[in-house]
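Lecture 7, part 2: worked example. A protein chain together with adenosine-5'-triphosphate.
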Amino acid sequence: MALLEVKDLQVYYGVIQALRGISFEVNEGEIVTLIGANGAGKTTTMQSIMGLIPARHGSVVYDGHDITKMPCHEIVHLGMAQVPEGRRVFQELTVQENLLMGAYTQKDKARIKADIEEIYEQYFPRLGERRSQIAGTLSGGEQQMLAMGRAMMCHPRLLMLDEPSMGLSPLLVDFVFDMIKNFNKNGTTILLVEQNAGKSLAISDRAYVLENGRIALSGTGAELMESEEIQKAYLGG
Ligand SMILES: Nc1ncnc2c1ncn2[C@@H]1O[C@H](COP(=O)(O)OP(=O)(O)OP(=O)(O)O)[C@@H](O)[C@H]1O
Ligand SMILES: [Mg+2]
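Predicted complex, written out as structure tokens:
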């Protein structure tokens, strides 16, 4: 059984249909990417899975639970977390306070403290050096690290990231993709949404190409990288 199974998902904004029946699955331990151009429906898919935008039709099953109509906070308790588009962090709060907010599903104070230290040590030493800095004054790359660190605070079994590489310098893009690989190596299943097809296909077990609210193509990361269609449309080849 897949960890996440999305079946014929249809989402509307008013009378406009943004998702025209999306079906895909993510198996435990995988990195799966949805790639697609602006407006293809990537963010809508993620927000709908997370219970933030209602589905008009179709279903989302996570770890055997039908979560199609479940509110977001309950979904988080099932072990799913997301890093939303635009790396939203609490601008007025410090780095440390932002990480604390990510632990709201946890109760054990000592454990939370240890988790924060682990985020600093294991993944983002740069955040450790800036633990008292107000998040709004961090650089774009540092804010992305913080958004990722905060999502990891609830020990998600499935982590979804919406265009984590957007607007970052090439060096930081590589860093972010390395970090996603690290999270995955340490046991977190990943659903990634990206326009950066080259980098994301390179780290993906499987991927789906989203076009105008539909899945146009799917395959392993390696297969899609070789595909002529993908080369032309997304890899400038
Ligand atoms: N709140 C909204 N109201 C109306 N239409 C919306 C809304 N949000 C998104 N849409 C439309 O739904 C479609 C899918 O948008 P979505 O944000 O999911 O695309 P995306 O693949 O994430 O694009 P991008 O790469 O630019 O982030 C687009 O045509 C968009 O204009
Ligand atoms: Mg988007």
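The chain has a mean pLDDT of 95. Residues 42-43, 85, 162 surround magnesium ion (ligand 2) (CB under 6 Å). Keep this in mind for problem set question 3.
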